[in-house]
Copper-binding protein
Amino acid sequence: MKLWGKSFLAILTLSLLSYGISGAAFAAVEPLSVTTNKEFYTEGATITISGLVKDFDTSDDMRSMDVTIMVIAPNGNLVTVAQVSPNSDGNYSTTMVAGGMINVEGDYTIKAKWGAQANQTEFKYGGSSGAPPVVDEVPEQTQTEVIEIDEEPYVDEEPVMQSVEPVCGTGTVLKNGVCVVDDKKKGGGCLIATAAFGSEMAPQVQFLREIRDNTVLQTESGTSFMTGFNQFYYSFSPVVADYERENPAFKEAVKIAITPMLTSLAILNYVDIDSEEEMLGYGIGIILLNIGMYFVAPAVVIFKIRNRK
């Protein structure tokens, strides 16, 4: 009886061990993973975002797409977006510096997308120090009355006011005495144009980036417009860019479709925008011009063709 009990106990132990080993050996691997090197960051720290694409294959165009990374602020605003190319074994990695657009204290969400696969993770940020410069106060001088023989009375000298240059916060630089957005800190790429023209270094993509950084973002109204536009644009552009890479015919169609818009934006290279009013005027004018080219003109042509019939 004792021998039977010992045998049963040994079999039960082996079964439990084999179950645990097999479970660990055949644990499922996520199709797309994303993680950060830390859970909490302070201003100026380097954020490393990495992960693995399980089914990545460089020999298959349908399985060698870039990974789209989007960083969402605690208030729901889009902070930045990037496209990362995995290496041959499917691992990918990118870095960014905490600060600039990442300035609000709280939990940030990182969303990764590769084709139909998606995943996300979070990290905490301690907030940026946007405090104004501290100017030392000139202590008030108290006059002490001293009575001495043959000595001229003491006269208070007026303090000399010294000009103090403003100290710009993270993500801005001093330009002509005013803090403006640092060109090196601006995030976000022209995903649709990059996919259409094949590279971020294409002249058309560089032109769009220069218009955005050197003209639109130099005014408050332009910065406000880009914030709202990015929320709308990056909600669909990663999907359109992926489809362009999968379908060459669609890619050429997009390239033809955005050429008139690029031509209209070239107007901004020949004007000087030095005020908010000029930015609003030229911006509204270019928007109306594009509405005319893409909607009004085709509608007029279709209307005339129908009347001839």
About this structure: Residues 171-309 form one domain. Helices lie at 2-25, 191-197, 203-214, 220-233, 237-246, 248-265, 276-308. DSSP finds seven helices and ten strands in the chain.
